[in-house]
Amino acid sequence: MVDKATALKRRKLEGAGKKAAAAAVPVRAPRDAQGRPSGTLPVELVELAKGATKPMVINDAVDLAAACGVDGKLLLQAEEMNVRGLGRKEKCHDVKRALSSCNVDVAALQETKLPDVSHFKALTFLPQNLVNHSFKPSLGASGGIISAWLDSTLELQSSSVGPFFVHSTFSHLLMDISFCVTNVYGPCDHGSKQCFLDSLKNIADSVHGPWVILGDFNLIRFPHEKSNDNFNMQEADWFNDFINDLSTRYPSS
Fold it and tell me: Do residues 138 and 245 both lie within one domain?
């Protein structure tokens, strides 16, 4: 007798609809008080995707997630954090605890203030399943970037480090999709900000799929985002022009 999980996988891989899948899979995804999925993928979805003969196309993966009661947006989760230094043991513990509670696939940390990261040091602030990482060292006590990923769902294809970023390309082990993540820590000095944005535009020329840019840009777009009156209109114009340019070249729909 074929169990429900095997039967569901067969139907999905043969192109059967989400309605049939929903009838076979119990909704076990943990939910919050409002009934929304909590972000933890149910065992059914992970096992079905891993059991497929090849990575599933994105639409099938989203359908499977929906059948299991999980928002398709939760198939990939990223968390970015300006940690403002990882020298103190207490700070490392706080960061590790925060990342452990998020169930993330990609963690993007900025301002680590670490000139080097050994495997032992990484374990002090990264959960065990996120210990694989790409790293940009700090310059003295300034800067420092780390991008870490969940090796059970993501495989690093390439990584490059620039003056203000760590750029990584991943393939998803459960879905037939590749994507890029650029983790940025923008300069604080006015004279380097245009160069920073130009370096991100240069990356855009080599991206041919989904692309996530996240981190601390050290830039704002509008006066109300500033806590004081020290608003630089020229820098805001640079930032807005950069966003508009990428929105035109890479529309969301």
Answer: yes
